[in-house]
Amino acid sequence: MASSAPAATTPRIAIIGAGPGGLVLARLLHLASIPFSLYEAEPSRTSREQGGSLDLHEESGQLALHAAGLHSEWKKIARSEGEDMRVADKHGKIFMEEVDSQGGGRPEVDRIQLRALLLDSLPEGMIQWGHKVRSISPSSDGDGKHEVHIETASGPRTETFDLVVGADGAWSKVRPLLSDTKPHYSTISCLDTRIRSVDTLHPVISKLVGQGAYFAFSDRRGLVAQRNGDGSIRTYIMLQKPETWLKEVGVDWSDAHAAKNFMLDQEYKDWNEELKSLIAHANPDIVPRSLYMLPTDFSWTSKPGLTLLGDAAHLMTPFAGEGVNMAMVDALDLSKAIAKAGSEGENTTLFDAIKAFEESMLERSHEKMEETWRNLELFFRPDAPKEFVQAFEEMMAAHGPPPEVPKAYS
Ligand SMILES: Cc1cc2nc3c(=O)[nH]c(=O)nc-3n(C[C@H](O)[C@H](O)[C@H](O)COP(=O)(O)OP(=O)(O)OC[C@H]3O[C@@H](n4cnc5c(N)ncnc54)[C@H](O)[C@@H]3O)c2cc1C
Predict the structure, then answer these.
(1) How far is residue 162's CA from residue 295's CA, in Å, rounded to a whole number?
(2) Best label site of 165, 311, 371, 407, fewest CB within 10 Å?
(3) What is the mean pLDDT of each run of 10 residues along the chain (410 residues)?
(4) Three-state SS for 300?
């Protein structure tokens, strides 16, 4: 369902995907009274567990929330104490520590809460749940129009649009129309684990992780533990392994007992006991993931009627905490480009506006993709985390604290 009937000259816009990027774009277009259709493959807002905690940066994620009129609501759920962090090695030797660092400008929010904030900011019925886009093809009408082929519970449907926005994540259906490049394996395999009620059931782990995050890296392995707002601790058990390792190593990852024993006896055997307790006490719902990425210089030649944002445009691993932030600020910039092309007295065509958006988005994202890749390499060196900490200190000395929010938003 479109948000309202488009006027004769209004472009028909489709947003594919209701992740953070698609939702921010929807909210901003809705505020600007620009109609669109938003298709989401998942059947409902509650159909998937939403993952861990995210820090939103002032210059990107928070900027988008300001423009969306949601910053003050977000502040009520943001946790400044979540900024605390420690970086250690497998012996628990601390290499870097930032505690009681409230006010660093990057508070944490649980992904589920951020998603609820964005979903609740849109009128009921605006998201078409259970609408999985199967494919997209150029329309015979020309002019950059595209047909979007959608699978729904009541059968297949095809709709034609002037602009199709791929906000559909890592395995975007829109990206192949712009580029032949596919995401490649990042070298990192991961088990996503949770320990619930940690304060009451596991006070030692609670103290170890504190209010924020605890990163331990050594020997091409890592444990990244982060406190979530619901009293649980999420630990990503991360290993640098070949692409097929998770499938071929001979462990049934759905058997939590077997998965934990394998990690404790084989991969993390010589790690200190406190760190090993993050694995030993993981609850049974363990999710294996292989992390993929796009090349750090990924780009495409702009084509009328199509664009990408977020992971669809610049999939990266989580090692700089930029993915969500980039998706949200992309959505902010794209909403401005669409509004600019549609405003009275403005000579910019929609294609020109999108092209300019893509140029600046790609420049920004290349920088973050390179930083992310650099961090991955430093975290997974045999002598980690020594060189990561050195590189971080050098970067802070060279660049100082993060940039301020532009005055218009403060
Ligand atoms: C383990 C892990 C930890 C992470 N930690 C962080 C972190 O700490 N900080 C950070 O900033 N980032 C983190 N990220 C990255 C972050 O999750 C992504 O960058 C972010 O979610 C991208 O948002 P998006 O809207 O572009 O895409 P997504 O969040 O992937 O949303 C895409 C949406 O499109 C829908 N969709 C997909 N295909 C179709 C289709 N064919 N038809 C209709 N709908 C479709 C999907 O169901 C989904 O809802 C992490 C990622 C992983 C894997």
Answers:
(1) 29
(2) 407
(3) 49 97 98 98 86 91 98 93 89 90 76 96 97 97 94 97 98 98 98 96 96 95 95 96 98 98 98 98 97 98 98 97 97 97 87 97 98 96 89 78 47
(4) coil
Q: How far is the CA of 94 from the centre of ligand 1 (A)?
A: 31
CATH classification number, 13-80+109-183+295-409, choose in 3.40.50.720, 3.50.50.60, 3.55.40.10, 3.40.718.10: 3.50.50.60
Would you kindly state where each structural domain of the chain is located, as residue ranges?
13-80+109-183+295-409, 184-293
Where do the DSSP E strands lie in 196-286?
213-218, 221-227, 233-240
Q: Hey, which bits of 125-271 come out as E strands?
A: 127-128, 132-138, 146-152, 155-161, 163-166, 184-195, 213-218, 221-227, 233-240
Is the CB of residue 132 below 6 angstroms from any atom belonging to ligand 1? yes
The CATH number that domain 184-293 falls under is 3.30.9.30
Buried-state track 356-366, b at ≥16 Cβ within 10 A, e below 16: bbbeebbebbb
Q: Whose CA is nearest to atom 52 of ligand 1?
A: 318
